[in-house]
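QA checklist item 7 of 12: single-chain prediction sanity check.
[x] sequence parsed
[x] length recorded as 235
[x] structure emitted
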Amino acid sequence: MKKLSIYLMAGRQTPQLAAAAVDAGADLLEIGFPFSDPLADGPVIRRAAERALGEGMRTRQCLDCLAAVRARVDVDLVPMTYASLLDAYGWERFAADAAAAGATSLIVADLPVGVRPDLRRVHLVAPTSTDERLRAAGEQTDGWLYLVSVTGTTGFREHVSPALAGLVDRARRLTDVLLLVGFGISTPAHAQTAAALADGVVVGSRAVEVAEEGPAALHRYVASLRDAVDATIPV
């Protein structure tokens, strides 16, 4: 079965939103830890991060949120953060505290492959990644590889990037881990197209937007993505 990952920003309502997403069919949840200068994030997630910071969501509060999410769901739970936050909190301390809160892995969006190889995490690769980087990322990643479908930040696109098929083909040749596609996946049609090529999809910006309308709206949206992914015909 194809995987469906939903990204949510850590905040006061995140546990209820997470429960709705999983009930609607999400296999995996990424919980964003807000950061004041998120290089990979587009305007929707940047605004969500600003709101979360305004609510007082610092690293300790985000870890508490992660634990509250874990109390409500039984799927893979992956905090997504930036190296500066871990520098400030302490790398080993963060890894231990995240695991204690229920995290099953970790994404550090701006930490290159090969840096801190002892930190168990999911690696990201893009269409611009060399074969050498793809191979190394596949060898070092924790369970699955995050394929960034476009060069740039998260956010809405009209169509799935034409570069995705080539990236998937190269990743298939160079690694045997699961491949999940993110960045620019926002509609059921996008999700179906990307899932036909890879092993699943990650939906971020649009999920964050819909989550602003509450758990019921998010449930309907995630259910529509689940139906689309389940109807995928492999290419």
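[x] summary fact logged: The chain has a mean pLDDT of 93.
[ ] second reviewer sign-off
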